[in-house]
Specification:
With about 375 residues, the chain is of the alpha/beta class. The chain folds into 2 domains: about 5-160, 2-Layer Sandwich (VC0802-like), CATH 3.30.2130.30; about 185-220 and about 255-380, Rossmann fold. The chain is built from 10 helices and 14 strands. The protein has helices at about 5-10, 20-30, 50-60, 75-85, 115-130, 185-195, 210-220, 240-255, 270-280, 320-335; strands at about 10-15, 35-40, 40-45, 65-75, 100-105, 145-150, 155-160, 200-205, 265, 290-295, 305-310, 340-345, 360-370, 370-380. The mean pLDDT is about 95. Bound molecules: S-adenosylmethionine (SAM). S-adenosylmethionine binds next to helix 7.
């Protein structure tokens, strides 16, 4: 078997947003990664196979995990083609399997991701046709094997995607509403809030239920990949199915269903409530999450709890003044009905923080779809400092 780059270095790579890196380091350490070295938009780490499978199966915060296969100079598309063609793809792509390439290039003579991906694809197909007499099929949406090409400063790194595309997708989002949160971002909210998973948590604008689902996964210790049918690491040339089934069995055995009433939420929109109930039903313990239809303004006083929510911030048909006064209403709700709670509110628009009428005790920068957002903590004392 060829000695690929990750065999030589023992290093794998996890991709994560710049702001979530600190949370990501903590998560990787908890899952057993060693010698974590931060890099731009991610980190390298050492892991043996048991630890690697556990990381890919359980990590909630990362967007991608990669096993580097080759690294080489790529000063032109032709050079890229020639180098890729010498690589033993027959050890990775088996007859009948499909593949796709995700490419990202920067600061290099090769400056077009799509063309670079095309060249790499041609080289792989040409090699396999010469070796086997048939070209593999490309499936850009749902391939068996996801390959990653990263070219920076004329150095190319080719890697196998270990989750098998979109690590953040858990599989529970079967129904959605406008502007759902990315699962890994909701998981970052839960982690940043330091919620203990034992005291009640509430989302008063739950949309399709992403925060509630991530809270459930955290509290019930449901692995992030629990609903995923297949993983990219199954295509590692040294994949060991026995190790993987042991890792999976051990992680699944830790699942502990939450008590009724631990996690709950509401939304004013009936479709959102329906979507949340459907989505949560895919997770163990999802039936224990209570979701009702209500405007937050009409809710009764909440028992002291952790509130985590992602209000709308640029709703269609809502003028700026309306969004500002709506944000003020969230502040009033927290002051009047949430005494004794800690509230974490995500603001996609930073200027709205001032409009809530409360002083945040913490601010956590987290971007959402390119927007520079802030997760803010408001401590709602009983009694109280605010009233
Ligand atoms: C940005 S979305 C939340 C998305 C959610 N985190 C998800 O991942 O699907 C904001 C939600 O707030 C709800 N909403 C807006 N005004 C509300 C109000 N006054 N009371 C309760 N919910 C409200 C909307 O119906 C929408 O579902």
């Amino acid at each position: 078997m060829t000695e690929f780059r990750y065999h030589k270095t023992g290093l794998f790579y996890g991709q994560i947003s710049e702001e979530a890196k600190k949370l990501g380091v903590d998560e990787l350490k908890e899952l057993g990664a060693q010698e974590i070295q931060q890099d731009y938009r991610g980190m390298h780490f050492h892991a043996d196979m048991v630890t690697l499978f556990k990381i890919v199966y359980c990590s909630r915060l990362f967007s991608r995990f990669l096993a580097p296969l080759h690294r080489f100079d790529a000063l032109s598309e032709d050079m890229l083609y020639q180098r890729v063609k010498t690589m033993k793809w027959e050890e990775i792509i088996k007859p009948g399997q499909t593949f796709a390439i995700f490419a990202n290039v920067g600061n290099s003579k090769i400056n077009h991701s799509k063309f670079a991906a095309q060249k790499m694809k041609d080289a792989i197909c040409d090699r396999l046709r010469e070796k086997r007499g048939e070209r593999p099929d490309i499936d850009p949406k749902n391939p068996d094997i996801w390959l990653n090409l990263f070219i920076n400063k004329n150095k190319a790194t080719i890697a196998l995607d270990l989750s098998g595309g979109s690590h953040h997708k858990r599989g529970y989002r079967q129904d959605s509403v406008e502007a759902p949160l990315m699962e890994s971002l909701a998981a970052a909210f839960i982690r940043a809030s330091e919620w203990d998973g034992r005291t009640p948590l509430y989302d008063p604008m739950c949309g399709s239920g992403t925060i509630l689902a991530e809270a459930l996964m955290h509290a019930a210790r449901i692995p992030a990949g629990y609903l995923r049918k297949r993983f990219g690491f199954e295509h590692m040339p040294d994949f060991d199915a026995d190790i993987w089934s042991e890792v999976k069995a051990k992680a699944d055995a830790r699942i502990k269903l939450p008590q009724e009433g631990l996690i709950s939420g509401s939304d004013m929109d009936a479709d959102a409530v329906r979507a949340s109930i459907v989505n949560l039903s895919y997770l163990p313990g999802g039936d224990k999450i209570k979701i009702i239809q209500s405007r937050f303004q009409d809710l009764d006083d909440l028992e002291p709890c952790t509130i985590i929510t992602n209000p709308p911030y640029g709703m269609r048909l809502m003028k700026d003044e309306d969004v500002e006064s709506f944000t003020g209403e969230i502040g009033d709700f927290l002051k009047k009905k949430c005494a004794g709670s800690n509230a974490w509110v995500f603001f996609g628009e930073r200027k709205l923080i001032l409009k809530i009428g409360l002083r945040p005790s913490r601010k956590f920068p987290l971007s959402n779809g390119g927007l520079d957002g802030r997760l803010c903590k408001f401590e709602m004392y009983r009694g109280n400092k605010w009233t």
